[in-house]
Amino acid sequence: MAITENRQSSVLQALLSADSKPTKDIPMKRLGVDFQIQALDGKTINKIQEQCTHYVGKGQKREKVMDEEQFGALVIQKACLIPDWSAKELIEKYGTPTEAILGLLLAGEIAKLSTEILEISGFDSDEDEIKN
Predict the structure, then answer these.
(1) Is 83 within 8 Å of 36 (Cβ atoms)?
(2) Which InterPro entries is this protein grouped with (predicted)?
(3) 125 pLDDT exceeds 70?
(4) What residues does 80 pair with on adjacent strands?
(5) Distance, CA of 40 to CA of 117 (rounded, Å)
(6) Cα–Cα distance for residue pair 79/96, rounded to 1 Å
(7) Which of 36, 49, 98, 109 could form an SS bridge with 105, CB 3.0 to 4.6 Å?
């Protein structure tokens, strides 16, 4: 019984002292700067998935489809501490944070950043498992 109590105490201590939103710097080689990202909670990721999901087809052939480009851009928008995608200068030029991300970053950079964000948020690196 003492082992169980010690284990319970250790687990509780680990939970209470854990950094709730870990951060990480991601080097962006093409730009020569580091972006700073933070982990997202499950509720935020679920909301983003809902925003990016639509239905195609009718009746029995109706399927859920996720816009992966939009998903990546929204994950980046929510998780980036640096840069602030809602900065006045970006909004004036691109209209929305999502359009700024899609307009300024290359497809591979979007994939890299969104993968890193999902990894520090506790998901495996296999994006297909996360999105399905």
Answers:
(1) no
(2) XkdN-like, XkdN-like_sf
(3) no
(4) 37
(5) 7
(6) 16
(7) 109
98 neighbors 56 (Cβ within 8 angstroms)? no
pLDDT band at 128 (very low <50, low <70, confident <90, very high): very low
Q: How far apart are CA 94 and CA 91, in angstroms?
A: 5
Beta-strand ranges (E) seen in the chain are: 23-28, 33-38, 53-56, 63-66, 80-82
- Residue 103 CA to residue 67 CA, distance in Å, equals 16
Which pair of tokens denotes residue 63? Answer: 């399927």
3-state secondary structure of 105: coil
Per-residue pLDDT of 61-110, as tens digits, reads: 889 899 999 999 999 999 999 999 999 999 999 999 999 999 999 999 99
